[in-house]
Amino acid sequence: MAQPTLEDISVDFSHFSPDGDGVQDVVRYRFTLGGVADSADVHVEVQTGTETAPTGAVVVVLRDGRQAAGADTAAWDGRSTSGILQPDGYYWFLAQAATDTDTTTAVPVRVYLDTVAPDVVVVNVLNPYTPDIPGADSLARITVDLSGVGDGDQLEIIFRGPKPGSASASHFENLTSDGILVAGWNGRGSADGMYGVTARVTDAAGHANTAVGSDLNLDIAPPQGVITTPASPDTNGYIRFVAGEVTDRSGFQSVIITVFDATESSRAVVDSLPCPCTEEKLPFSVVVPDSVAETDSLIVELLLVDLPGHIGGSSTLFLVDTIPPPPPIFDPLPASVSRPQLEYDGTTTDADSVYIFMNGVIVNAHLVRNDLFSGTVTLGQGNNTLQGRAHDSAHNASGFSPGSLVVYDPTAGIIVPERFLQGDVIQVNLDSPADAVTINIYTLRGRKIRTFEDKTSNTFYDFPWDLSDDEGNAVGSGPYMFRIVIEMGDGSTIEDRVIAVVTR
Amino acid sequence: MSPRIWTRSLLVMVLITGATGQARAVTSQAFVTVPGGAREFAMGGAAVALTEDSNATLLNPARLVYLHGFSANATYSRLTEDIPVDRLEGSVAIPIGSDISAPLQRGSKTRRAAVGIAFEALGLDLSQGSRYAETQLTVAGAWAPSNFASLGLGGRVMLAGSDNVEGLSASGYGVDAGLSMALDPHIEGAIMVRNLFGGVKYEESENGEDALRTVTLGLALHRTGWIYGEADLVLESQGTYRVQLGGEVTILDLISARGGLKQWLSPDTRSIFTAGAGVRIPLVRVDYGVEFDDKDALGMAHRLTVGTHF
After folding, report:
1. What was the ipTM of the complex prediction?
2. From the CA atom positions of chain B, what is the Rg in Å?
3. Which residue in B22, B29, B212, B235 has the most chain A C-beta atoms within 10 A of its own C-beta, making it the best mutation to test that interface?
4. Which of A128, A64, A63, A115 is nearest to A86 (CA)?
5. How many CB atoms lie within 10 A of CB B43?
6. Which phi and psi (to 5°) does residue B42 adopt?
7. How far is B78 from chain A (nearest CA, A)?
8. What is the mean pLDDT of residues B228-249?
């Protein structure tokens, strides 16, 4: 008779925790009975033991009897034969197969029964974290108390923020419970801001525990200052007051504001804010005495040092400009229009904004780019006088431009330019809404070349014509007959024919 | 010249004019109103193979050789409904040289040559009341190398302008060519190319445009003295084409009744019926024609002609 064999011996977890949490509650011992034609006696038991060997005390017998050849799995829930949960420690699976003549013993397999979750405490987060300052810590130091972890547990420290959803993590494996771990993070590629710090420890039996530390303040950016008064580098009066705000994530070691005459640096006033301080934002204001203020060019310097040691600031030149720009010039405007929307363009020099007035009331404001401005204004019925006024960056205002009179006359009717150019518009103006307007365009030989149709309910209809026929071919110059049919809302119909001459 | 050579000439002309008729360049729509008298108007415009008076100066100069003598016509047209689009046309033609015996032709004789001159004027009101006008002056000549066929050639200058609108002044020119042949004692064929060469330019336009080129292939049937009919295929620049059919019945060599059909085939299809009547008394002939175009198109159009022939 053949010698029985026990092959493919394994367990699915080296650590397990029969605590009923659904994670690694049972460990499975797998083996394959071979070497026999049909069956053999199989005995599988669990013994107590040390890390290196079983001690011989049987905890539970999982198999004992005749068993057919083939693969089998014996599961153990960490309890003895009497159902008592065993204490944490090492346990060994032992297996033996026997026939009437031969016996085979499998190599023992060890598992660790672990019902105790690891513990972790974040002791300290060093703030602020400024890895860019020479001599400062290049790593954010996170101190973690590991006294509650077990051998082989894993630690993960997660930095989350400053934007929602962003996170990075550092991993530490095979920890030993020797007390304290100081973890570092270089913050490389991360934006300034507050980062949440979380330490998560996981043991081999599947237990996990999390500790939340204080937020980490990552501060790489230098401090910054903004001058709010004067509001523009160009001003039309002497600067007798300077105000603004300085900002930094960590606070300031020092804030120094210096205002001086650009042509004579000896004429200066120096002010500072009480520092060090931990405020993220600090307002400042400096009164400039006449001896310094009465100049055409003034420089305001901000020298800022934040708590980690970043140096920042600015130097801004303010020019005093009292010469107004010339009035803006409108491109030629139509003398009369039949639509309330009027587009205009114009030019101006030495100005950065233009205000548009209609009948003396401001209606639009434009920023000037390349000395050009453009816009649209809604006309009132009758006479409309458009004027413009230019402003430069020092807030000097020009006089009003000469008034351009545009008459808006929405008289009901069909308006077709007598000389029709590319892009001209066929307009239909009605006193009451229509349901549809159809326009067919014919040559004087009677050939229909283009149809326009608008089935929306409206009072004004515009039909721009690009001088192409219904197939998209360019039509030639010459007289064309426009047949217009208007289906009014009350069911009546208005029909008309007009002729215009197309020229290209 | 033998009939075979004429046939070949006809084919060559058909090919050339057919090809030019399909040209795709931008074609001016100035100076495009249909010429001719009220008789031709009433017959759907089908006239290139049967006209035989001074109107041939514009319709087919090759037909001038069939003048019976001095011929003059004056025509007034109202081209559209509701708005004033008026057209005047005057033409004078005289035969030159001796007669050629022409047994195949009705009237039994053909002139060796003939010349004609025609004046066209179009006046209309634009959309805001300004006036716009087009005028054309055409001089044409015809020559009959044999007693069954003739060739014609015409040249035209064109001017346009407005009393109130800048940029509407235009000028142009055109060259016409025509051919007419007797195919049978009662069947005549003709080819007419209006503006075989020609151009139009508005003064403020950057480029000139082609004058509208029209190629008409006509076939006429007649029983001398009382019944005439013609069918034309008209090809225009930019791929437009149509068929024109017309008929005329004359009673007692005095009163004529006419009808016709102008059928647009491309790019859109539209049928336009025409009708008219004429009275012929010694030396004077008066004709009237009306065209029943769709009310949503040009509407009804009228044409009245007074002519003299001796």
Report:
1. 0.91
2. 19
3. B29
4. A115
5. 30
6. -70, -20
7. 11
8. 92
Rounded distance, CA A86 to CA A63, Å?
19
pLDDT in tens, B89-103: 999 999 987 776 554
Chain B residues whose beta carbon lies within 8 Å of the beta carbon of residue A473: 24, 238
A292: phi then psi, degrees, rounded to nearest 5: -100, -35
CA B91 to chain CA mean position, Å: 12
The mean per-residue pLDDT over the stretch B103-127 comes to 80
Cα A295 to Cα A287: distance, rounded to the nearest angstrom: 15
The answer to whether B122 and B85 are in contact (CB under 8 A) is yes
Q: How far is B103 from chain A (nearest CA, A)?
A: 38
A444–B33 CB contact, under 8 Å = yes
Token digits of residue B292: 């029943």
Least confident of A21-30, A154-163, A175-184, B97-106: B97-106
- Indicate the pairing of strand B85-101 with strand B71-78: antiparallel
Residue (of B185, B169, B147, B192) closest to B57 by Cα position: B192
Instruction: Give CA–CA dist B288/B77, Å, rounded.
Output: 10
Per the structure block, which two tokens stand in for A3? 């010698």
H-helix or E-strand containing B19?
Answer: helix B3-21
The answer to whether A429 and A338 have CB atoms below 8 angstroms apart is: yes
How do residues B131-154 score in pLDDT, each as one tens digit?
A: 999 999 999 999 988 878 899 999
Three-state DSSP state, B9: helix
Structure tokens at B295: 């009310």
Which strands sit side by side in the sheet containing A404-408, from one edge to the other?
A336-337, A404-408, A382-391, A353-358, A361-367
Full-model pTM: 0.56
Nearest CA to B94 out of B110, B113, B107, B109 is that of: B113
Q: Do A475 and B30 touch (CB under 8 A)?
A: no
Nearest Cα to A99, choosing from A33, A19, A16? A33
- Tokens 């007289």 correspond to what residue? A479
No. of helices (H) and no. of strands (E), chain B: 3, 15
CA distance B287 to B275: 11
CB contact under 8 Å between A473 and B293, yes or no, is no
Q: Please, are residues B112 and B96 in contact by the beta-carbon 8 Å criterion?
A: yes
Chain A residues 287-306 with CB within 8 Å of chain B = none
Instruction: Report chain A's mean pLDDT, rounded to a whole number.
Output: 87
How many residues belong to chain B?
A: 310
Residue A253: pLDDT above 60?
yes
